[in-house]
Amino acid sequence: MKKRIKIFVIVLVIVGLISLFVWYLSGLNFEVLNSKGPIALQERNLIYFALLLSLVIVIPVFSLTIFFAYKYRESNNNTTYRPDWDRSFVFESLWWIIPSILIGILAVVTWNSSYQLNPYKSLNSNVKPVVIQVVALDWRWLFIYPNSNIATVDYFKFPINTPVDFYITSAAPMNSFWIPQLGGQIYAMAGMSTELHLMASSYGNYRGLSANLSGVGFSGMTFSADAVSNAAFSNWLKYVRTSNNRLSLSNFNILAHPTISSKTINYYGVYPNLYVKIINNFMSSKSEIKHKIFTKNNINMVGM
Amino acid sequence: MIVASFWLGRLNSHIFPTDIITLGAALSILFGGVVTVIVVTYYKKWHYLWRELFTSVDHKKIGIMYIIVAILMLIRGGIDALMMRAQQATSVGTSHGVLATSTFQQVFSAHGTIMIFFAAMGLMFGIINLVLPLQIGTRDVAFPFLNLTSFWLFVAGMILINLSLGIGQFSAAGWLAYPPLSELKYSPGVGVDYWIWSLQIAGIGSLMSGINFLTTIIKKRAPGMKFMKMPMFSWSVLCAMTLVVFAFPILTVTLSLLFLDRTLGMHFFTAGHGGNMMMYVNLIWAWGHPEVYILILPAFGVFSEVVATFSRKRLFGYRTMVWALILITILSFSVWLHHFFTMGAGADVNGFFGIMTMIIAIPTGVKIFNWLFTMFHGKIHFSAPMYWFLGFVGLFTIGGVAGVIMAIPPADFQFHNSLFLVAHFHTMIVSGVLFGYFAGIHYWFPKIFGYKLDEKLGRVSFYMWFIGFLLAFIPLYILGFLGATRRIDHYSASLGWQPLFIIAGVGVVIIAGAVAVSILQQIVSYRNRHQLLDLTGDPWNGRTLEWSVPSPAPYYNFATIPIVHDRDAFWVSKNESKEKKRVLEITDILMPVNAPVAVYIGICAMLFGFSMIWHIWWLSIVSLVIFFIVLMIRISDENPYYLLSAQKIIEHEGNI
After folding, report:
1. For chain B, which has fewer Cβ within 10 Å, the N-terminal or C-terminal residue?
2. CB neighbours (10 Å) of residue B497?
């Protein structure tokens, strides 16, 4: 009897701890699953799909492991012992074929989704995209709005339901540009420009970060991506234009100097083609790129 | 001044650690070393150690040395893990934790490097050395002297990486040191150079071991042991060593190029001047992905032996097991890009590598089902190795699911470099590699030392590892979904992550306890060795040739080389009638002599590495010259063997 009470208490404690844990988890923001834009949503659905498909293998493996280990234990004499039975065409075919079919299904999904969610692919939308050029610095993020002649540090705003075209480079070691609630990441590399096309479908200040080690200021390389209404966005643009800070080449060099800081900055008046200039800084003159590459979608780079 | 820099290179009075934690670590290693030296000197054991261990070319003794070094490095890497968890559990909001950022970054870089290169690789080569020649029925590896040299190069690399604690600093660029962060511009100190040279030297040792074991398996199997009659562990070693031979040269070249960048101002991977960091990332993973299979395939082999032996049944689906291994070996070279889907390759490239990655899940799944069906209709004896096996199946399956999810490039965009990824690869490496080698150590221990390990403490250690692992890594899976990246030393309090990091820290403490129990198990088993003695040479009712010789295995392995007619050669011969067994004549054997030169080569390699790190060029030249001289002396020795007379063998066999 006493033993039963003991077991009961242990079970109660475990259940209590697990409920406490679940209660604590329910208060957290699961950013990868709590999607706020179409790209993040599709990526999340892919994760769920792959997880469910995997259960087709996981459940049999777990059940068989427990069942076999229990049933064929040495002390159980009610089983037949067949020490020389070591092959079965049917069984072995089964676990070559069934996983192959599952992986076949997943392969098709992988191939298609690689195209659908290719980070370089522009989003389908009737709304004209906002262009933001992102520069990873030591250890801050610079966001240049080439069409509005403004730039910001460690935060940016954009209207919801509007595609945002990010062009991403680095003036520092390799970083990775990631806003979990809007969609997956891509590397920021010096001398190169990568792209990411995201969109927010609801308002919010979304946490953005660097996901690749870049030196002592790495943990602090976070920023806020603020999805706002169209009106709020144009008001904000006007507000930034009142800034007295100019992003001249010399000011950029000061900004690019290694600094650990979470202070946001607004700039009005950006050195023409600064983004291209930064990329070319890391390239020999022979391979210098023309700024044409970054005028996709017929967007004028300078002025608005 | 110029004279000083000629003699001392970059060494100066500022090289010693100033922060209390690094200093403490350096001093405790120094203290441990001094105590060991004093104890050995007091008991007058130097001569014994030198003759019987350090210079011995006996593969079993080399295996023991590998495992001792690997366990020490597992503890070192484990302390690093404890410090990382302590930092992440405390550094939130206004608090900045127990470690300075630069220390923290050195700690995680060292943790990854040490665990892979010196703990996991050491355990792997240790087990292979202990078992492989016995299992294929040969007296030694193909090149015994090369084998010992590989070990001392491994030690030279190990010493260098630990030296960085006390002299200078270690790399803070992560365990794979991606440029441009690892280039001179962003990492001007000696840290990355320590990383380069300790891996370069240990890596050359690994490559030579790979060649050695590959040759051993191909050329030295017992007569009659066709490839398809070879035990599964030997098969897995054959596949892993093939990977070593193909993959490690890539590492050597990549490290050399990074060295040229840093030391001679070249621009292979720099940002700017035509360097291309993407080339490095490709090269390092073209080695790095096969590397994880190098570690895990022999562990698969261990599980194959363990599950068949303890189920008292032939391994299920031998043929498909072999083909699954071969398939994994080939495929492992075609998936490296899945480590950087986020680098911006096109959809077709990402899609291709994603699908190739998933395909590996098929042969791996086949192996799991074959192991399970080896238990089916068996008679399972639950010794500690079976516990490790069952824990492995459970965790490895979970880790595999996480891996398949991340093999879909767009899903990986949301997990890349997150703690989800960290949890995934720890699940694979801890449950696969570590559990496998722990099972292997328990299983083959009596063959090497002549007595079994304490069962009960073995199980306690397993349960603590298992529970500790769940507590340490389930929170990391969750943190991945919360959007937490790896390698952060500080985060905002409003995110609410702290309790998860604390639980993870508790898990690591339990794992530390599990390691302590393993050490206790060694002590208790040694004290009770008379009760645990293995007199038969076959304590588990084994199936393969290593169990046919007495325990501990004699230094010449086999008095007469066995002749193999079937798979599970020893199991079959046990069931044969006595009359059928042939009595073979014992003859004289040529045995390799001890090789002190291997130790000298290790010392030269260490000095060479040290001088390259600190730019002490005269020492580089001197150590190279000495290396060539000792090598010439050794290879001029036309007959490095001695004759072991049949008389002596008969005496030795009679004593057992």
Report:
1. N
2. 23
Rounded Cα–Cα distance for residues B286 and B84 (Å): 28
Cα–Cα dist B173/B178, whole Å:
7
- Model confidence over A62-120: pLDDT tens digits? 999 999 999 999 999 999 999 999 999 999 999 999 999 999 999 999 999 999 999 99
Domain coordinates of chain A in residue numbers?
A: 31-76+85-116, 130-296
In order, the DSSP letters of B228-286 are: GGS-HHHHHHHHHHHHHHHHHHHHHHHHHHHHHHHHH---SS-SSTT--HHHHHHHHHH
Tokens 């995680």 map to which residue? Answer: B108
The position carrying tokens 């659908």 is A116
pLDDT beyond 90 at A289 = no
Q: Which value does ipTM take for this structure?
A: 0.93
Specify the pairing of strand A164-170 against strand A130-136: parallel
Q: How far is Cα B452 from Cα B524, in angstroms, rounded to an integer?
A: 11
Q: How is chain B split into domains, by residue range?
A: 45-576+586-595+640-655
A58 contacts in B (CB within 8 Å)? 397-398, 401
- Total-model pTM: 0.95
Calculate the average pLDDT of chain A: 92
pLDDT confidence band for B95 (50 / 70 / 90): very high
Supply φ then ψ for residue B16, to 5 degrees.
-85, 150
Interval B434-455 mean pLDDT: 97
Which CATH superfamily is B45-576+586-595+640-655 part of? Answer: Cytochrome c oxidase-like, subunit I domain (1.20.210.10)
Residue B542 has a CB neighbour count (10 Å cut-off) of: 21
d(Cα B594, Cα A120) in Å, to the nearest integer? 62
Q: How far is A174 from chain B (nearest CA, A)?
A: 7
Do B413 and A62 lie within an 8 Å CB cutoff? no
Beta-carbon separation of B271 and A283 below 8 A: no
- Compute the Cα dihedral for B508, B509, B511, B515 and give only its sign: positive
Residue A25: other Cβ atoms inside 10 A: 15
Chain B interface includes A44 (CB < 8 A): yes
Task: In whole angstroms, give the CA distance from residue B164 to residue B181.
Answer: 19
User: Distance between CA atoms of B403 and B644, rounded to whole angstroms?
Assistant: 52
Average pLDDT over residues B566-571: 91
A303 interface with B at CB cutoff 8 Å? no
For residues B632-653, give the mean pLDDT. 90
Residues A159, A165, A171, A176, Cα dihedral to 10°: 90
User: Per the CB < 8 Å rule, is A57 touching B397?
Assistant: yes
> Over 60: is that where the pLDDT of A302 sits?
no
Residue B260: band (very low, low, confident or very high) from pLDDT cuts 50, 70, 90: very high
Q: What distance lies between CA B614 and its chain's CA centroid?
A: 28
What is the average per-residue pLDDT within B501-520?
97
Could you tell me how many residues make up chain A? 304
pLDDT in tens, B387-405: 999 999 999 999 999 999 9
Task: Give the model's pLDDT for residue A2.
Answer: 82
Token pair of A281 as six digits: 């800084």
Strand spans (E) along A45-163: 130-136, 141-145, 150-153, 155-159
Radius of gyration for chain B, computed over Cα atoms and rounded to the nearest angstrom:
25
A38 and A201 in contact (C-beta within 8 Å)? Answer: yes
Question: CA nearest A186: which of A158, A172, A159, A166?
Answer: A166
pLDDT digits (tens, 9 = 90+) for B297-340: 999 999 999 999 999 999 999 999 999 999 999 999 999 999 99
Size of interface A-B (CB pairs under 8 A): 279
Q: What is the pLDDT of residue B15?
A: 87
B residues 352..391 contacting A (CB < 8 A): 354-355, 358-359, 361-362, 365-366, 368-370, 372-382, 390
Instruction: Tell the CATH topology of A130-296.
Output: Immunoglobulin-like (2.60.40)
